[in-house]
Amino acid sequence: MTPALHLLQYLPPLSTETTPKHGLRPLRRHSFSYIKACSNTRNGRTKGPDDYHATLKALNSKGRFPRKSLGQHYMLNSEVNEQLASAAAVGEGDLVLEIGPGTGSLTNVLINAGAYVLAIEKDPHMAALVSERFADTERLKVINEDFLKCHIRSHVLLALESAKSLQVVSNLPFNISTDVVKQLLPMGDIFSEVVLLLQEEAALRLVESSLRTPEYRPINIFVNFYSDPEVKFKVPRTNFFPQPNVDAAVVTFRLKRTKDYPSVTSTKSFFSMVVQFLT
């Protein structure tokens, strides 16, 4: 059996559920807005949309299969990526940090929107794949490192001089989402906004839990201390390969500057107290 046919066995089935155009739907139990897909790419930058076949071809080119240990779930619907970029209002000349670019499906949309992309990829095979895919553009720099262990400030500050805006836009590996949020949100001095595609459960837990619910945790205080979060829209699980057991959702975190943080004597002491009382 060829590698392509082998991978085709694991493609998620097409959903029989009725959903709005583009396969996205708002979360029903909340009044989150449904964001329209972006228009066609411009300025001749497009390399074509990513779909089932493009994703399989890219993975086969490196003999790769999604690794559970890395939380890899590849996006099969380019229009979801367009809506993710639209939620971040990515435009010409923006600098975007992308964590875990994978096959480059979101990277493609960001570059087409006019952004310069700094991509951090832990998997050396996927780092090579995305570098090769965009070898003819000067709008991408790929760093083969573990985001949670790299010196992100130094990487970003080196690239910041020529950019008019700096934000994070990522379809995150599901298994590192909370750790990434903890690392990014206190960086309001560098990033203006963080837009992430997360597991729906994680998104609601981070954003929607209130003090009156048993789900309220120190992470909720942390998120609201450093940002103004909002869940934008839901992404059905059928848009991913391999198909996860849960749906996803896009969340925007508008980061606060230091002067806008709640007034506390010491952030370290404050969060130590929070952990003590809520755990």
TrEMBL record:
Domain of life according to the entry: Eukaryota
A Pfam family matched in the record: RrnaAD
Record EC number: 2.1.1.-
Residues given in the record as S-adenosyl-L-methionine binding sites: H73, M75, G100, E121, D146, N171
Keyword Methyltransferase: yes
Keywords, alphabetical: Methyltransferase, RNA-binding, rRNA processing, S-adenosyl-L-methionine, Transferase
Molecular-function GO term, any one: RNA binding
Cited CDD domains: AdoMet_MTases
SMART domains in alphabetical order: rADc (SM00650)
Cleaved signal peptide residues: none
Span of domain Ribosomal RNA adenine methylase transferase N-terminal: 80-257
Gene3D superfamilies: Vaccinia Virus protein VP39
PROSITE patterns attached to this UniProt entry: RRNA_A_DIMETH (PS01131), SAM_RNA_A_N6_MT (PS51689)
Family classification: Belongs to the class I-like SAM-binding methyltransferase superfamily. rRNA adenine N(6)-methyltransferase family.
PANTHER family named among the record's database cross-references: DIMETHYLADENOSINE TRANSFERASE (PTHR11727), RIBOSOMAL RNA SMALL SUBUNIT METHYLTRANSFERASE, CHLOROPLASTIC (PTHR11727:SF27)
Protein's UniProt name: rRNA adenine N(6)-methyltransferase
Organism: Trema orientale
